[in-house]
User: Which sequence fits this backbone?
């Protein structure tokens, strides 16, 4: 790092020129990159996704789309079998109002299973159509515009006086979320404002603007790289939000660490370029290894067979690499320039860094208390995190069930009517199948499967096209329940080679199998690479093991907190007025892991690198803990506050899945900066004593570092 610093400052004009060019190129490339980002949430290679995409291509509806379920209750004295014609006209009016939708009812099929046990209650299915450009509503994720009021109004005009009609279904039952939300520029603005406030509190000078300059350069340079990637591969628009918010956090983190160390060297009496070299020697390695740790965590998402998650990981890796590069090249030049100006002020009698030597006293006092009470502190913090991690084992990643959704409104009234009439609950979660052979034989095979309530396959152009037929399966149990997923599996096994099963449940099951199936092996590989990297960084075998173990404990605690907050609704219902869905998004634990593994390791490296440095000076573990926490505590806290504000801003969105994901990241940052780095890490390091620094010769040789036996 010191050699790099010398080289950078020797060629400072060239570095400055290249930085300006990178900024201008990135600034010009950003709008073009944004235009080329994809909005399609595709899962290529997954059988259900391919079936769903083919169904939508041929029929213009169905597939992954969740249907609206209009429930009609006729007046007393009327029976559905006697009013089949008027029921048919009511559903035909829906087809006329929504010409791209596929509609089926008792009048179309004559299937008595679409009529309740009371004879007065009947229901149908309305699969919303695609937009005029062929794209499904909701960007392919299954969310659709609320057509319930339109369907209700159209059918009410045709049905006999005294009839009631309520539209139910998973979308109609889903909890409502603030539809306003906050747009991307506003989210970024909130993050920038929080960053400025925190940095000015830390530096109390114009130096607060330096990390922002570094962050801006890293973000725009990253967009230039994204533009190049869009020329050879599909990059999803999640990068548009991810890179600015994550870059605002990571780039500021790195520059904050280096600037603070430079101020510390200035306070120690070092001047000009020498202060920069010493700061790079001390903090530069931590920045480099932190960047590697972030990239390792995001590798999880890059190798997944899910394009939008891959784009999320790529965007994170690019901004991490750019942040490291800018921090280790451009920032030393800025600090050298600032140093000369401060020298002039110092000669005039001003001492801008006189408070730097006093910084961290409060954190040092805290660390001394933790070291003194290390065992009870570790037990209390570790116990709380362990309890949360156990709750993570109850995570439900499947589709929501009606029992966990709304308990009032039109959707609930329709569901209640179906229940009173004895209609199976799975009728609100049907799934489509694409048949390329004989539809009658396919229907017979599927109807014979245990747990199938009905199979709908009208012989009309809306259901038969291009040599194919689409059939809709109504299971007895809801697809979000374990019993419902077992029905999907049995239907897949019995359907035959000429039938491809689609629907939201099948696609969710495929996603989990693909994304989480190899995750334990991937986790093992990431842990191994992280171990080798940190063993070299800290010159220790046990510190990396501790770091990885605490990181995994922290991640498990975050997922457990998501289960309590969003799956069980502890606090979200009372404090936010948001009804929990009984499940968390299937991609949430994976993305939380990928982001927080790197970011948490970021703080770990900052803290342990300084402890290692202090131990090398003093040979006293207790002193190393106190000095390490004292010197990095305020930096970790400040960096965490910035990231917390960024992810909180991201959570200000109307999409519930994004709220869950962003709030998980924000909570994870909070837990990590308080319980983990503030209590558990110093307590465990103090408990391990000299064992922290154990690196025998046989391990030091392949790492190419000096051994440090216990």
Assistant:
């Amino acid at each position: 790092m010191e050699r790099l610093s010398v080289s950078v400052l020797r060629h400072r004009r060239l570095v400055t020129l290249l930085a300006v060019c990178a900024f201008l190129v990135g600034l010009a490339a950003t709008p073009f990159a944004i235009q080329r980002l994809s909005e399609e949430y595709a899962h290529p290679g997954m059988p259900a996704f391919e079936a769903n995409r083919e169904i939508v291509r041929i029929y213009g509806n169905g597939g992954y789309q969740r249907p609206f379920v209009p429930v009609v209750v006729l007046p007393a004295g009327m029976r559905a079998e006697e009013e089949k014609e008027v029921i048919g006209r009511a559903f035909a009016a829906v087809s006329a109002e929504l010409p791209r939708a596929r509609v089926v009812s008792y009048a179309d099929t004559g299937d008595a299973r679409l009529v309740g046990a009371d004879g007065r209650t009947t229901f149908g299915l309305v699969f919303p159509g695609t937009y005029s450009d062929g794209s499904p509503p909701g960007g392919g994720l299954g969310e659709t515009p609320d057509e319930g009021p339109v369907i209700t109004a159209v059918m009410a005009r045709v049905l006999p006086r005294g009839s009631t009609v309520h539209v139910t279904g998973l979308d109609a039952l889903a909890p409502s979320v603030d539809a306003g939300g906050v747009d991307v520029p506003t989210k970024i603005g909130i993050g920038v404002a929080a960053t400025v406030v925190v940095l000015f509190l830390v530096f109390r000078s114009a130096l607060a603007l330096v990390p922002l300059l570094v962050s801006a350069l890293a973000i725009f340079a990253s967009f230039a790289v994204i533009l190049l990637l869009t020329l050879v591969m599909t990059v999803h628009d999640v990068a548009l939000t991810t890179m600015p918010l994550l870059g605002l956090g990571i780039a500021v983190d790195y520059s904050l660490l280096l600037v603070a160390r430079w101020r510390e060297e200035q306070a120690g009496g070092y001047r000009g370029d020498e202060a920069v070299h010493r700061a790079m020697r001390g903090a530069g390695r931590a920045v480099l290894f932190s960047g590697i740790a972030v990239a390792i965590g995001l590798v999880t998402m890059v190798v997944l067979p899910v394009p939008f998650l891959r784009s999320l990981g790529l965007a994170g890796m690019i901004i991490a690499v750019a942040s490291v590069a800018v921090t280790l090249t451009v920032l030393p030049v800025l600090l050298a320039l600032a140093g000369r100006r401060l020298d002039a002020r110092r000669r005039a009698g001003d001492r801008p860094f006189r408070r730097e030597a006093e910084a961290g006293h409060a954190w040092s006092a805290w660390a001394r208390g933790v070291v003194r009470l290390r065992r009870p502190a570790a037990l209390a913090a570790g116990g709380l995190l362990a309890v949360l991690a156990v709750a993570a084992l109850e995570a439900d990643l499947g589709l929501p069930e009606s029992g966990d959704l709304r308990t009032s409104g039109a959707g609930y009234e329709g569901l209640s009517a179906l229940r009173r009439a004895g209609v199976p609950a799975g009728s609100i979660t049907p799934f489509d199948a694409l048949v390329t052979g004989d539809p009658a034989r396919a229907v017979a095979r599927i109807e014979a499967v245990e747990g199938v309530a009905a199979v709908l396959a009208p012989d009309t152009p809306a259901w038969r096209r291009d040599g194919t037929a689409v059939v809709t399966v109504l299971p007895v149990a809801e697809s979000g329940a374990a019993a419902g997923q077992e029905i999907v599996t049995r239907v897949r096994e019995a359907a035959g080679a000429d039938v491809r099963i689609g629907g939201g449940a099948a696609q969710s099951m495929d996603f989990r199998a693909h994304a989480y199936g190899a995750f334990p092996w991937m986790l093992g590989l990431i842990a191994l690479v992280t171990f080798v990297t940190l063993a070299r960084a800290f010159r220790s075998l046990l510190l990396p093991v501790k770091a990885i173990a605490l990181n995994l404990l922290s991640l498990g605690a975050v997922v457990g907190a998501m289960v309590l907050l969003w799956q069980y609704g502890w606090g979200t219902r009372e404090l936010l007025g948001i009804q929990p869905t009984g499940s968390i998004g299937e991609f949430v634990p994976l993305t939380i892991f990928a982001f927080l593994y790197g970011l948490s390791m970021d703080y770990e490296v900052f803290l342990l690198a300084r402890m290692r440095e202090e131990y090398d000076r003093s040979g006293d573990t207790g002193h190393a803990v106190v000095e390490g926490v004292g010197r990095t505590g305020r930096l970790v806290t400040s960096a965490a506050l910035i990231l917390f504000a960024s992810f909180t801003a991201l959570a200000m969105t109307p999409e519930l899945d994004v709220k869950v994901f962003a709030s998980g990241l924000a909570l994870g940052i909070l837990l990590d900066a308080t319980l983990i780095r503030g209590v558990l890490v110093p307590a465990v390091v103090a408990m391990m004593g000299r064992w922290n620094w154990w690196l025998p010769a046989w391990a030091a040789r392949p790492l190419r570092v000096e051994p440090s036996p216990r």
In short: Strands lie at 69-73, 102-104, 121-123, 125-127, 164-168, 431-435, 452-456, 464-465, 468-475, 499-501. The longest strand covers residues 468-475. DSSP finds 25 helices and ten strands in the chain.
